[in-house]
Amino acid sequence: MLFEKGNAAKQWMLEELDRRYGKAPARILDLACGNGRIWERFLKTHPNIRVTGIDSDERAILQGKTSYQGNTQINLQHFDAQKLIDGVYDSVMAMSAIEHVVDHPAFLRTVWNALSSGGVAYLNYDSGHFRSNNVKERLMVPISQLLALFGAQGSYMKRVDDKLFCDQIRKQGFNITDIKKHNLYPLKGFMRAAEEEAVKTWYEFENKLNQMYLPEELEKVMWSTTVVVKKG
User: Fold this and answer.
1) In angstroms, rounded to a whole number, what is the distance separating the alpha carbons of residues 226 and 232?
2) How many domains does the chain have?
3) How wide is the angle at C-alpha 178 spanned by C-alphas 182 and 100, nearest 5°?
4) Residue 41 lies in a domain
C-alpha cells in the first residue's frame, strides 16, 4: 500500500513497520515528527498501532494536534529529542531528522532509553540540503550551525557522515542490521506530482537498486539514508 507519495525512504520505513507488526498492537515513537502528517494513511489501515510523536517545533505540534483532534491513535508532544523521554516503545522512527540534530550521542541515548529490549529503530537523514543549487538553502547550512552555538537550534542543518554516525550508533550499544539508500535525484522532486502507479514503480526501482548495490555505491546518486538498528 502507498503510505507516502513523495519520499521513497519514508515509504520504505512505513512498509517495514507494516511487515513487522501487520494488524498486531505496537507502540511507535516518532522523533522529530513535525506535524505528524506522515502517519495519516498508515494509522487508518493499522488500528492497533499507537504513535507518540515529539518535536521541538511547537507550532508544528499544535498544527498536528488540530489535524488529529479526536484521534486516539496518535499523541503529539512538544519536546526535545536530545533529552530522555519517558516510556518504552516497540519501534522508534526518525524520518528526515538526523541532519537537524545538534547532539547525535544525546539523540541516540534517547532512542536507546525509549526502545524495549529487542526493539528496532529506523534512523533516517537526507543530504539534499547540502547538494541543493538553491543559494538560500546552501547559505542556511553554515548560518544554522553558527546559530546553534548560541542555543538557536531550530533551523540547524549539518550533513551526516555515514561512518561517524554508525560509529556513534555502535558506541551506544546498538547493532546495525541494515542500511538503505533512497530518493534518487532528481526523481524525488519529479514524482511529487506523479500518478500513484508511477510512484509505486519508482519505489520498486529504488528497492531493487538496494538489492543490487552497496550503500556506499548508491550514496553517489541517492539523497537519503536509513540506518536500521536493534537494541539487544
Assistant:
1) 19
2) 1
3) 55
4) yes
Residue whose cell numbers read 526523481? 187
C-alpha span between 123 and 216 (Å, rounded) = 17
**158 located within any domain:** yes
Per-residue pLDDT tens for 134-192?
A: 888 888 999 999 999 999 999 999 999 999 999 999 999 999 999 999 999 888 888 88
pTM above 0.90, yes or no: yes
- Note whether 163 and 228 are within 8 A (CB): no
Distance CA(172)–CA(168), nearest Å, equals 6
CATH of the domain at 124: 3.40.50.150
Indicate whether 3 belongs to any domain. Answer: no
CA 211 to chain CA centroid, Å, is: 21
Sign, Cα dihedral of 107, 111, 113, 114: positive
The CA distance from 123 to 169, in Å, is 10
Question: Edge-to-edge strands of the sheet including 115-126?
Answer: 74-78, 49-55, 26-31, 89-94, 115-126, 222-230, 175-184
Q: How far apart are CA 68 and CA 75, in angstroms?
A: 9
Q: What is the pLDDT of residues 32-83, one digit of tens each?
A: 999 999 999 999 999 999 999 999 999 999 999 999 999 999 999 999 999 9
CA distances from 213 to 12, 15, 206, 222 (A): 17, 21, 11, 12
Question: Is 2 part of any domain?
Answer: no
Q: What are the two backbone dihedrals, phi and then psi, of residue 230, each rounded to the nearest 5 degrees?
A: -125, 140
